[in-house]
Amino acid sequence: MYVICRADLEMSPGKLAAQCGHAFTSAYEKALMQRPEVTGEYKGTGEGTKLVMYAKSLTTLVRAYRDLQKAELPHHLVIDRGHKVPPHFTGEPTVTALGVGPVYRDEVEVIMKRYTMIK
């Protein structure tokens, strides 16, 4: 599984962890419905692999979202609503992350290579 988070929002470690949690959970729930066989394989491996990547901006995150839609792969766009954490979270809906999978690596390799791993 993968999560792509927006680097431009400069989220605190706690905020970033929460957004990743939302993205992983929601993408997994969608995958249970869309691709139960792949989800079963993923769950059967124990904890499964999870990678967190950065997108430079909303535009680059939306590009991955559209690519995943076209490929008909399970994904979930996380929109933070109503929270105030200045300067980027003003209470307005804010796209923060994109959860992907479970998927096979070769299904998303072309999409994911545009993003950098969080260190």
TrEMBL record:
Q: Which UniProt keywords apply?
A: Hydrolase
Cellular component aspect of the GO annotation? cytosol
Gene Ontology molecular-function annotations = peptidyl-tRNA hydrolase activity
Q: Kindly give the Gene3D superfamilies that the UniProt entry links to this protein.
A: Bit1
Query: What EC number(s) is this enzyme filed under?
Result: 3.1.1.29
- Give the reaction(s) catalysed: an N-acyl-L-alpha-aminoacyl-tRNA + H2O = an N-acyl-L-amino acid + a tRNA + H(+)
Pfam short name (any one): PTH2
Identify the InterPro entries for this entry.
Pep_tRNA_hydro_II_dom_sf (IPR023476), PTH2 (IPR002833)
Family the entry assigns: Belongs to the PTH2 family.
Q: What is this protein called?
A: peptidyl-tRNA hydrolase
From which source organism is this entry? Luteibacter yeojuensis
